[in-house]
């Protein structure tokens, strides 16, 4: 998978390039709108990670070009600017991250946007999720989970480091057959998952907001 990183902060860029390449992605880095547009014209990418504020303009021109080539877009922004974020999402951006961000969170979002189709195992704390077999292992031993507990575990694994609101989780756990998980039921399932996974996985409760697993 090819990624274009458009970021003018050399320290942030070097760290991101290294981390993304360690994940197995091919990364090209540009620091300006002009060079990013030239790079996209020369070669298509699968994902463009774009800083909203660049030395020669904002990142929306780059986003428009990237989306036109079929790439997904993830914006980086230094401000919690609701209008800019809404505009970015309305234009087709898949996600955004506000600086300062945690590297693991950003990498988790990139993995969500660029599934390789080859990965059959996900790591969640000290637990390993075998997606091909549909089971969760701790210290090599399978943990007996219900179908919904497994889906909840998988949801946390594909969003490591990211705060998931209760509404987001409930939406994801909605059964295609029309069955749904109630808010109170979610609390019970999180409690059961904690009990079954033990110290292998720390599910953090962010009071009044949701859950996060690093």
Question: Topology, pairings included?
Answer:
Elements: E1 2-6, H1 10-22, E2 26-30, H2 33-42, E3 47-51, E4 53-54, E5 57-58, H3 60-68, E6 72-77, H4 82-90, E7 95-98, H5 103-113, E8 121-124, E9 127-130, E10 135-138, E11 141-143, H6 147-157, E12 164-165, H7 166-173, H8 183-197, E13 203-206, E14 210-213
Parallel strand pairs: 1-2, 1-3, 3-6, 6-7
Antiparallel strand pairs: 4-5, 8-9, 9-10, 10-11, 12-14, 13-14
Helix pairs in contact: 2-3, 6-8
How would you describe the overall organization of this protein?
The protein has 214 residues and is an alpha/beta fold. It is 40% helix and 25% strand. The chain contains 8 helices and 14 strands. The protein has helices at 10-22, 33-42, 60-68, 82-90, 103-113, 147-157, 166-173, 183-197; strands spanning 2-6, 26-30, 47-51, 53-54, 57-58, 72-77, 95-98, 121-124, 127-130, 135-138, 141-143, 164-165, 203-206, 210-213. The strands form 4 sheets. Strands 2-1-3-6-7 form a 5-stranded parallel sheet, sandwiched between helices. β4 (53-54) and β5 (57-58) form a beta hairpin. The longest helix is centred in the last third of the chain and has 15 residues, at 183-197. The chain is elongated, with a radius of gyration of 19 Å. The mean pLDDT is 85.
How big a fraction of the residues is strand? 25-35%
* C-alpha termini separation: 24 Å
Structural class: alpha/beta
Shape: elongated
The Rg value, from CA coordinates, equals 19 Å
How does the major sheet shape up? 5 strands, parallel
Strand order of the largest sheet: 2-1-3-6-7
The residue-averaged pLDDT reads 85
In DSSP terms (H or I, runs of 4 or more residues), the helix count works out at 8
User: What kind of assembly state do the chains in view correspond to?
Assistant: single chain
Runs in which pLDDT lies below 50 for 5 or more consecutive residues are none
Helix content: 40-55%
Based on DSSP secondary structure assignment, what is the total number of beta strands? Answer: 14
Order of helices and strands: EHEHEEEHEHEHEEEEHEHHEE
